[in-house]
Amino acid sequence: MSCPDIMYAYAPQIALDGDRLWGSLGDDHDVFFTIEQTGSSAHFDWLSDLPGTNFSGQAPDGRLYRYLNWYEGYIYNDGEEWYKVPVELPDDLSGYFAFQVRPDGLGQLHAQFHTGQGAGPVQYASLTDGEWSWEQVGVWGGSGPYAGTDAWDRPFYMRFYLSGGQARWLLSLDGESNVPVGTPDADPGFLARPPRPALGGDTPIAVLHRIPGEPLNLLSIVDSDNWSENPIAGTPELPELCDEVFSTTEAACPPCHVQAKGIEFDAYQIVQTSGGQLWGVWVVSNVDFEYVYDIEQLNDTKWKCTADLEQSSPYAETTLVVAELGSEGEIGKTLELPLETVWVDDFARRHVVASAYGDDIAVMIQTDPEDTAAAVRVLRIDTDEI
To answer: How far apart are CA 107 and CA 118, in angstroms?
Structure first.
């Protein structure tokens, strides 16, 4: 997909149900679509709207749920239409974080919402006999706050926050709160979702993240005192690239050239297929990167160097990798799919989103050919065929 009127897709969205793939470029871009697949044939449709802010959860039968900021309730899809369902919630509901439904492995509805302001309580709600009730599972703060149900039917809450002056994942589970898990000061990474665990299964809570200077690591959590962290082979970090703009005390701006191969900052995801199997998804960028600069004198002792993008070559050859992951980071069957030549910005932050249903995985990858136009590649992958 090429969208020349959009400069950048900051927050793409993707989901699968039994019949179709749903997608959006997010960020109020009003770009929504579906892809229906029957056998080996697929039918693409633009949508006038995809109600809600983002996807929040999925039931075992494939029903998708979305949330809407400032709406006291949730949105679900019946296969053709989206419907709003109001919920009577506390007066101090934090509308920005909304009411995010999380079905468990039996299809029973639960939800996460936030009350109060700032670091207020996070509530985990359950629907029983048509009535919603809730209890506090933690407090808001940090990145990635997530309340859900694990494979053993236990409510849990995770957030990435400071603990003892170090940023790390904090786990609340089985009556224990804010227990640090994982290596301190690693990147937060991504928590495996839908979640749609098979009750009684053995799939741990799983996070795929980067420890600086190391390959991607799989953080697997069974309990607060039973977790492991293991590197994933063949997932090096892409090193720092050239700065697009910088200041210097020298009256010269020599070209900058980097040749490297690795995974850009956020160019990876982790998903669970419906049987609980973990899959890692990442994009390997083979970069041959060169900036040529224009120079501007700012004062007697300082000059500004700005990359001339028309004369530069900030590009990479990319390969999508989809890999079956064991709970200790071991790699099973793997798909490697060459993609197109793509533009790489100086922050090397390529967006990748993924979701799963049944044995299929949906992936959307940012593949901008230049810095002034958005493009994405959308794929649906049958893991049985890998």
So the answer is: 32
